[in-house]
Amino acid sequence: MKKLKIVLTIFLLMFVSGGYSVLANTQSFIPNGGATSTNIYLPDQRKLISNANQFPYNTIVDIQGIFPNTKVGWIAQGTGVIIAPNVILTAGHVIYDKGQGGYLSKVQIYQANTNGTKGATSIASVTGLIPNGDWVSKDNASPNNYPLGADDLGLIVINNNKGLNTGWMGMTSNLSLNQAISLAGFPVDHRDQMWGMSGNVSQISNPLFSYSNISMYPGQSGSPVFNTGNNIVGINVVEASYLNPNPNGDNNKVPSSLASQYPNYGVQLTASNIN
């Protein structure tokens, strides 16, 4: 992948009832100034997942908790996916963020109801948080900037075998340019609902790959990126910010003509990090 002068923004969103604000690691990764944003490609073709109780969407969960540096009354939110009876795969920064003080706590895990809305109660208690060691070491070394090249992955261990009820998607390291992929998660601009979109792989540069025709929003960090065979090929992690100040606050609305310049990114699943 060419070394573009882009700003990568972690997709984890902190929100408080009544309003939203992107807080987590919003400083420039490759500094060139400007505002950070989230890439919604116009026209916005994301869709509400209205069959969220069916596979594979029933394996996708909403993750909420608090970091040590989270403001009082605020909540950190991301997405994850069940990959074993009692294990959830997510982005490493959803559960460990040095810039936010370390590990996520008071973690709640929610499934979506049939109509795509988030369930009212947590489906499990969390017994373990396991961020990838590569992510932890690189995030510790660069807590104020997103460490491009890190395996931004993590596991959450829960206290029951929920996966035996939902099943789980497979995982694969097979990834190719233009491959058809889908992404689904819990974006906070559609609060407490699961939304998704399909598109294609744009570029591949281990450990990242990009997609410039799949829109997403904060809260979808950790969302699974999966192929047409319902095998997970990666985890959604960062974006190339669209730097176009707009008095209406719509910095995240990227014209289709510019989409290829401002892609969104996932971490590939490889033989090493799958195992």
UniProtKB/TrEMBL annotation:
Record key words, sorted: Hydrolase, Protease, Serine protease, Signal
The enzyme's E.C. designation: 3.4.21.-
Entry-linked Pfam families: Trypsin_2
Molecular-function annotations in GO: serine-type peptidase activity
Single GO biological process annotation from the record: proteolysis
EC main group: hydrolase
Keyword Transferase assigned: no
Keyword Protease attributed: yes
Name of protein: Serine protease
Organism of origin: Lactococcus lactis subsp. cremoris (strain MG1363)
